[in-house]
Input
Amino acid sequence: SVVWFRRDLRLADNAALLDAAQNDAVIPLFVWSPEDEADAGHGAASRWWLHHSLLSLQAALEAKGSRLIVRCGDPVAEILEVIRQTRATAVHFNRLYEPVWRAIDARLARHLRSERVELKTRNASLLLEPREVSNRSGGPRPHPPLPRPRCTHPRGGRDPSASRTWTSCRRWIGRRDSDQHGSPARPRRFHA
Output
């Protein structure tokens, strides 16, 4: 089975890798797609993180007696080429939800069906799939509702002048209190 590493560049807590390793020998693959990454708006810092994460993943795989195959180009074409070279019968990966990646996943699924290669995807980054979240009338919700921040005065009690906005919370979070003598306040212990 080919395991297509994307953003989940680790061995631990990797649902697709665990699924593949239980059933078959694993062929670890990473495909760098500069065009798709550019569409996602990733810059130099992301590429720096990617470089070091790939080095770390390669070292972890080598410690397990394997090696990472790294390809550059169209992910679908590169995955199909690795399947042909290795005669893999399945492709495993953890889903991404940005439109560019969903389009790539759909294209890959079509090609794998025609090649009679099994496709297994896993949710490894969300508590719920987007299609599982709905509004009160049963329609899709673009995102779960965000909780309202609760602002409290640093000395306890509610700040009567604070509205329930992030700006008012930041004001209290960043505020430096002083004790009754004008010197900085001693650290307080918080009890749960």
User: Anything to note?
Assistant: Residues 44-63 form the longest helix (20 residues). Residues 121 and 150 are 39 Å apart (CA to CA). The helical segments are 15-23, 34-39, 44-63, 75-86, 99-115, 166-174. The chain is about 40% helix and 10% strand.
